[in-house]
Amino acid sequence: MAKLFLVRHGQSLWNLENRFTGWHDIDITELGIEEAKRAGMILKDEKIDIAFTSALIRAQHTLTVILSEIGKPDIPVIIDKALNERSYGSLEGLNKAETAQKYGDEQVHIWRRSYDVIPPGGESLKDTYNRVIPYFENKVAPLLKKGENILIVTHGNSLRSLIMYLEHLSPEEILEREIATGVPITYIFDESFHASRKVG
């Protein structure tokens, strides 16, 4: 049975500053590095054959720390922008609280927590899903079906897309799912390629 490990990157500088980050290439903080190390400690005894990450430095840096922590820095790594965070368009770089003061709490909540509403110049979660899932089906799923264990280190909304797909969740259900930084989520696939989430 193959395993899929999902990890959201460690805290980034703009996470700390409560800014919309999206496709801006912002690195992780010292706390983010510590979160990545803890993720590595959790995954230390797992067999990992190949890793995937986005084209953004916060995910790549987190992955590098994890692989160093587990003592396997030479695992093959595939980098692809298909796994990038959702684009927030013209909101990127703006403080979330200040943006709520400008546009109203309700509007900002809709931009952040709706499935198919697009922020100005950006992507909806639905757009992100339609980018991430074909990539997963074409590039990752065939490896899992061969029995390889996969680690994906990426972003909150990229992971929401994957979790929605793997757990067959509705748009309403996935929008309620919080994904902590630097905490591995494990899925185990049976011979029929059905995924079950490992808890604990």
Automatic annotation (TrEMBL):
InterPro entries: His_Pase_superF_clade-1, His_PPase_superfam, PG/BPGM_mutase_AS, Phosphogly_mut1. Pathway: Carbohydrate degradation; glycolysis; pyruvate from D-glyceraldehyde 3-phosphate: step 3/5. Keywords: Gluconeogenesis, Glycolysis, Isomerase. It holds the Pfam family His_Phos_1. The active site is at residues 9, 85. Substrate binds at residues 8-15, 21-22, 58, 85-88, 96, 112-113, 156-157. The record marks 155 as: Transition state stabilizer. It comes from the Bacteria. Its EC number is 5.4.2.11. It catalyses: (2R)-2-phosphoglycerate = (2R)-3-phosphoglycerate. GO terms for biological process: gluconeogenesis; glycolytic process. CDD domains: HP_PGM_like (cd07067). SMART domains: PGAM. GO terms for molecular function: phosphoglycerate mutase activity. Catalyzes the interconversion of 2-phosphoglycerate and 3-phosphoglycerate. PANTHER family: PHOSPHOGLYCERATE MUTASE. This is 2,3-bisphosphoglycerate-dependent phosphoglycerate mutase. It comes from Chryseobacterium flavum.
